[in-house]
């Protein structure tokens, strides 16, 4: 990484870092980005790297080290798919979020990190995940962004730092201020590199993390740019000052440099206040502002509401006139058919709701379904009900109406799983297996399916127990019903039939 005070080389054990994670802290200008670049350059040939880059500073790694640059201005479905393939094929990449506003950056990073976290077990290769300006993605308190975006981003960062080790994800997070970073994220790091800091609260926290006396915290004010105090199993067993070495690539942005002022010009008032004659004939160049990308779902929704430019009938081959207005029943039949067609795809369970919604709107347009498009919230609700497998008779029962009310107690992404359990209990069907529950949630992880059941039990929505043979039974106290016994490790028959049909 550089050199120690006595001139000896300062080394970092990458294998140990993969198991223990790293936190870098320092005020703006202390050399955090330089430190991260040194770490990335030195380890590029040894381990796969993924960099969450809010300012686009690390894209220059692609020129020398071959990192793939992924622009953040993509849909959630695209980002999730790219992250999954990045993990599968072990390609180092830089997720550049430059040009997005803070909330869009948080959402894009969360989708990307979650997709990497949810990779299949066979692809759990070691990955060094570097997050610059981590306080943006794991804020200690809410800011100007929506609560939904904050929870989404904070959850992804918590997964990375708290549970990522077993999945091969080693978090390296850098922040300007420890006080702005969520404590549960910072606390999971076992290695620390602390740079120049001026605020008392940040110096005190840095000293605590390094196991130093608070009276020694004043030393952080005196650190030079590019100098850090390191501690941790991958660095040193006691705090040591480290001067970070040189790097081979440079960021696109650079620190401000002083330039000499131009020589004094005579008649400076005339120069400034007298307009140039060419200014009256020269057209001002249009201001080039980079607009924030509009969500594709909004654009497709507008297209669905579009009306013809003319009231005149549209001529068609054969002399047909204007198409007659579509009745409510016919429209509902077409909407239901499109929804069933989308969900019939065995891979639909692993696509994000936003991606499914985009596909849904496009198919409605292709079938010329008129009227206002279904809102995204209603679409998610209908997808959850459809994935439960409920039939018409059960859907008309009072027990199902109660189950729908109970499902509102959990988040939208969990409603489909709960309604599937409720349908099995109402119809006294065998308890769904871990594989089936996982598919309803959109993952391949059986352990996540079991955690969902534990979460529902904590919310007092279900009771899980076993019969004498060890098969699982799920009961719903509010409905006074329970499933028939079912094997938790049974294969997902529906997914198997779909694959066989393909």
From TrEMBL:
Q: Tell me the ranges covered by the AAA+ ATPase domain, including all copies.
A: 18-290
Name it. AAA+ ATPase domain-containing protein
Q: Which domain of life is it from?
A: Bacteria
> Pfam families per the record?
DUF87
What taxonomic classification does the UniProt entry list for its organism? Bacteria, Pseudomonadati, Pseudomonadota, Alphaproteobacteria, Hyphomicrobiales
* Region annotation (Disordered) ranges: 304-328, 483-502
């Amino acid at each position: 990484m550089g050199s120690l005070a006595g001139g000896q080389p300062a080394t970092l054990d990458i294998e140990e870092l993969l198991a223990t994670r790293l936190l870098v802290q320092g005020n703006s200008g202390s050399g955090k980005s330089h430190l991260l670049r040194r770490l990335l350059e030195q380890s590029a040939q040894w381990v796969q790297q993924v960099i969450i880059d809010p300012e686009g500073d690390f894209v220059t790694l692609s020129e020398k080290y071959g990192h793939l640059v992924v622009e953040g201005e993509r849909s959630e479905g695209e980002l999730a798919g790219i992250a999954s393939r990045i993990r599968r094929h072990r390609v180092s990449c830089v997720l550049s979020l430059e040009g997005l506003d803070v909330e869009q950056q948080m959402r894009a990073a969360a989708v990307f990190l979650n997709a990497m976290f949810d990779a299949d077990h066979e692809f759990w290769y070691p990955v060094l995940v570097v997050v610059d300006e981590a306080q943006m993605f794991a804020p200690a308190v809410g800011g100007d962004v929506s609560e939904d975006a904050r929870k989404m981003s904070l959850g992804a960062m918590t997964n990375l730092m708290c549970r990522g080790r077993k999945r091969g994800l080693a978090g390296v997070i850098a922040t300007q201020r420890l006080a702005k970073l969520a404590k549960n994220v910072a606390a999971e790091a076992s290695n620390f590199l602390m740079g120049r800091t001026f605020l008392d609260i940040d110096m005190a926290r840095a000293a605590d993390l390094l196991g130093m006396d608070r009276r020694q915290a004043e030393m952080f004010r005196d650190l030079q740019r590019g100098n850090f105090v390191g501690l941790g199993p991958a660095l040193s067993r006691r705090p040591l000052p480290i001067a970070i070495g040189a790097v081979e690539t440079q960021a696109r942005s650079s620190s401000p440099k002083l330039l000499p002022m131009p020589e004094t010009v005579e008649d400076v008032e005339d120069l400034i206040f007298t307009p140039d004659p060419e200014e009256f004939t020269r057209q001002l160049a249009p201001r080039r502002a980079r607009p924030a990308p509009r969500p594709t779902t909004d654009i497709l929704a507008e297209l669905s509401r579009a009306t013809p430019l003319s009231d005149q009938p549209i001529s068609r081959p054969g002399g047909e006139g204007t198409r007659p207005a579509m009745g409510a029943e016919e429209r509902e039949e077409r909407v239901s058919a499109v929804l069933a067609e989308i969900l019939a795809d065995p891979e639909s369970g692993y696509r994000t709701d936003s991606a499914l919604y985009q596909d849904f709107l496009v198919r409605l347009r292709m079938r010329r379904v008129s009227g206002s498009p279904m809102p995204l919230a209603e679409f998610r609700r209908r997808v959850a009900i459809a994935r439960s497998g409920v039939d018409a008779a059960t859907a008309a029962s009072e027990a199902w109406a109660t189950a729908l009310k109970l499902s509102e107690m959990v988040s939208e992404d969990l409603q489909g799983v709960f309604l599937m359990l409720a349908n099995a209990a109402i119809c006294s069907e065998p308890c769904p297996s871990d594989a089936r529950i996982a598919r309803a949630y959109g993952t391949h992880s059986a352990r996540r399916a079991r955690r969902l059941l534990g979460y529902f039990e904590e919310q007092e929505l279900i009771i899980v127990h076993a019969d004498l043979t060890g098969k699982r039974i799920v009961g719903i106290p509010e409905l006074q019903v329970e499933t028939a016994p079912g094997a938790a490790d049974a294969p997902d028959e529906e997914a198997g039939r779909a694959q066989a049909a393909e």
